[in-house]
Amino acid sequence: MTNRSDEQKEEMPQYKVCLAFAELADVALDDFAVAIITGLTDNTSYSTPPVTVAQLAMLKSAFEDAIVAAPAKRARAAIAAKNAARDALVLALRKNAAYVEIACNNDLPTLLSSWFEAASHRAM
To answer: Is residue 49 scored above 80 in pLDDT?
Structure first.
């Protein structure tokens, strides 16, 4: 016979951050980064992200600059620089996404306050 509290634990959803942002087009990724910066700024639930809001803003700005420069220069080096800036931004967002998953303490409203999207949840 199973314990009632064990059954409740098994049914409790475990919220995860959706990582689909990594597949967004460049401009959409930039917009997403703006949303995350907004969501993390002065958010007491996320006071110590691995990538600070200031660092994230610098990575986003570098990516924006690279987006503008790549088509203007049409050189392999400019495209490579844009791709490197994109990779750095995505890596920073993934680090913060992992932090948000842990720091939200499995509370969906807290997770969403970061402006990250929740992936569909699964039972623990």
So the answer is: yes
- Give the mean pLDDT of the chain: 89
Q: Provide the 3-class DSSP secondary structure of residue 3.
A: coil
Tell me the C-alpha distance between 68 and 45, whole Å.
34
Which of 7-11, 32-36, 70-74, 112-116 is predicted with the least confidence, judged by mean pLDDT? 7-11
Strand pairing partners for 13?
A: 123
On whether residue 92 sits in a domain, the answer given is yes
- Which residue range forms the structural domain that includes residue 43? 12-123
Count: domains in the chain = 1
Show the CA angle centred on residue 73, arms to residues 70 and 77, nearest 5°: 65
Residue 50: how many other CB atoms lie within 10 Å: 11
Strand partners for 22: none
